[in-house]
Amino acid sequence: MLNGFCLAHYRFTILPESTISLPMFNKGSILRGAFGSSLRKLICTMGAEAVCETCMLKEKCAYVLIFNPINLHPAKRLYNTPRGYVLKPSLDNEKEYSADKPLTFDMILIGDRIEYLPYVIVPLMELSRAGLGFNRGKFTLHNIEVIKNGSAESIYDPSANMVKNIRKQITAEEIMHTASRLNPHELTLHFLTPTRIKYNSTGERGGSELVRIPEFHHLIRRLRDRINALSLAYCGAPLDLDFRGIADRAQSITIRNHHMEWLPLLRYRSFHPSLHDQSGFIGPITYAGDLAEFLPLLLLGEYTHVGEDAVFGSGWYKIMNLNEFKEE
């Protein structure tokens, strides 16, 4: 089903040398913008006004390959190639970080983009000198950990400024194995960050509407499409599944209960100055039915997120009842 899909999960901890001011929400978009800007300054030789889409070097450029992968894949449906990483920002409500209050965030690298970890670390070190946040607070990189099966192993020695070559990928086989041990009849998803999904129930052009209470098939359609695009772009093959059938069967899954809320959220885009709507639903929702075939997609979705702006933290959910299921 998942073919050769794989990913790696990293956690970064930074220690501010002075106060770093960040918004309560949208930390992910701030981090993504800072990362991208830092990497481009380090990598790009064509100048600040260069347009990536028409650059003759784009197929070899680390900035394009990681942060702006437009028109890099021969498949027409991948003209707007999804980014091969996901930022998981801190979920705390803090607005200021200091030496005694470090900032932690996670990053997921997918498929062949795992090899680009150095192109994440080096810009982060450069960013530590340039500063982060509204006030450009300086910081030091304190730790990098690789996470698998709930345990974290440090791969960074700050005293020597060295990164250990430790690989701990999460594979399709491991996802499928975990899925086989879950409750196939009921599960609860808790949406931690605003999740923005549109669905066109009529099939007519321009008929898409925002979903405020997600039916199960809304999630499966978006997860199916997102994970398939990521698999095709970075893992060498599309998903092996019945695309139309899995969406049709997802409509038989019912909502048992929910406590969803709508969180209004706007993000300012400086590159093309404008306000971008990131409002979405958050909270727990419980689904019931024959869930077995959907569990691998739902497990992967914890890493890939779902819906709009997933790359910098939106659409992040956790499966709440991950304990092993035992038939009575």
TrEMBL record:
Residues 189-317 form the CRISPR-associated protein Cas6 C-terminal domain. It comes from the Bacteria. It holds the Pfam family CRISPR_Cas6. This is CRISPR-associated protein Cas6 C-terminal domain-containing protein. It comes from Candidatus Fischerbacteria bacterium RBG_13_37_8.
